[in-house]
Design brief:
With 413 residues, the protein is an alpha/beta fold. It has 15 helices and 11 strands. It is globular and about 60 Å long.
Length: 413
């Protein structure tokens, strides 16, 4: 099989960019990735542009990738627009790798961009509304919220301000985990406090303010057991990666020793399962396949970036990635196992909760962090001796789990 290398990465600050267009953000990330790889745009054979809500919020309903990249001088090459909800950018990464393996090109670029902030807050939150089957909204909600039945939220634990309806779904996942495994709100808060503390050392993070567990618990509620710092914010941003094979790497002018190997990139769509059948969870199945294809085990993993749209997401996904047994994610977080310096650091970037979550760019933001870690270039948040990295990224909901899930495994050369 053709070796796939990530030769260059680029990422904007995630956050509020009211003065920049989606084209501006794209150009910033792409130029950084090309510069990092020592690549000229004319050496790129194919491009994959990921976004979710540029059409809904910016009115660029069609050809957003062609518009953004043409303005940078990309002409003549195949440019594909990719959408997979929050897993859109990782979808672009996967397809870029497939194009290289298929022999279509030696060098490809994947870019994810989202421009989500708008003065119309109702419209901004409505951007998430189509991340499930829009023809069955009522039954979707009924089906998913049943997972949380049996836990009575304390009085005053729900926000009176608008928030995404998906936070109620995440809260239901929390409550099911609480009922099944005894996970506590304090353990969820420990994940959140850890990620916010990590983000202090990430200059590209949306938030760089540390929290204690007590401060997380005392923060304004969203919906029990979630408080505001436990939830990923609305974000603008862009991230990009230049991928190549060995032949393509020879033509680039960057330092070849800094290239990182993409050992495996696995996507799965959901299947029907019982809520308690954790071994058949979409991410657990994707992780098992990714480890097998990469030829590594969970015990080999040095550093991880997971999709923590809420802090509970990290607990669920470290279990699915086999980093701890099911039900042990909360206690492990409370012990500090996933903190930088712990057994296996998770979300050294600060995660989606504090790094930010521009949904169409999120997956490549995770890749940016892991490439930086494997190169040993993460500064104060560096994971010592990082050699094997795992990325988990999910998008949308169908049934009781993600519509699509991705697990990628990277290694130092």
């Amino acid at each position: 099989m053709t070796d796939i290398l990530i030769a260059g990465v680029g990422m904007t600050n995630f956050g509020r960019h009211m003065d920049k267009s989606y084209k501006d953000l794209t150009a910033e990330a792409v130029q950084m990735a090309l510069g990092d790889a020592g690549a000229d745009k004319n050496e790129v054979g194919e491009a994959f542009f990921a976004s979710c809500v540029i059409g809904f919020l910016q009115d660029q309903h069609m050809v957003p990738g062609q518009v953004a990249l043409r303005s940078m001088g990309f002409e003549g090459i195949p440019i594909f627009n990719v959408e997979g909800a929050c897993a859109s950018a990782t979808s672009g990464l996967y397809l870029a790798a497939q194009a290289i393996r298929a022999g279509s090109c030696d060098v490809a670029i994947a870019v994810g961009t989202e421009k989500m902030f708008t003065h119309d807050k109702a419209k901004m939150f409505a951007a998430f509304d189509s991340a499930w089957d829009v023809t069955t909204v009522d039954s979707n909600q009924e089906y998913l919220l049943k997972m949380g039945e049996g836990i009575t939220p304390p009085e005053g634990s729900q926000s009176g301000k608008p928030y995404s309806m998906f936070m109620d779904v995440y809260a239901a996942f929390c409550r099911q985990h609480i009922k099944t495994f005894g996970t506590t709100q304090e353990q969820i808060a420990a994940v959140c406090a850890k990620n916010h503390t990590h983000s202090v050392h990430n200059p590209l993070a949306q938030y760089q303010i540390p929290y204690t567990v007590e401060e997380v618990l005392a923060a304004p509620p969203i919906t029990y057991p979630l408080t505001l710092p436990m939830c990923a914010p609305i974000s603008d941003g862009s991230a990009a990666a230049v991928l190549c094979n060995a032949e393509g790497l020879k033509r680039l002018k960057g330092d070849a020793s800094r290239a990182v190997r993409l050992l495996s990139s696995v996507f799965r769509s959901g299947t029907s399962r019982a809520a308690e059948d954790y071994e058949q969870h979409i991410t657990a199945l994707a992780a098992k396949e990714a480890y097998e294809k990469a030829g590594v085990s969970p015990q080999d993993v040095s550093v991880v970036e997971v999709h923590d749209a809420t802090a509970m997401g990290e607990i669920i996904q470290v279990e699915n990635l086999q980093l701890v047994p099911w039900g042990e994610g909360g206690p492990a977080a409370e012990r500090g196992d996933f903190t930088i310096g712990g057994r296996v650091p998770v979300n050294p970037s600060g995660g989606l909760e504090s790094k930010g979550h521009p949904i169409g760019a999120t997956g490549l933001g995770q890749i940016f962090e892991l490439v930086t870690q494997l190169r040993g270039e993460a500064g104060a948040r560096q994971v010592e001796g990082a050699r094997i990295a795992v990325q988990e990224n999910g998008g949308g909901l169908v049934g009781l789990e993600e519509a699509t899930a991705a697990v990628s495994i990277l290694s130092k050369q």
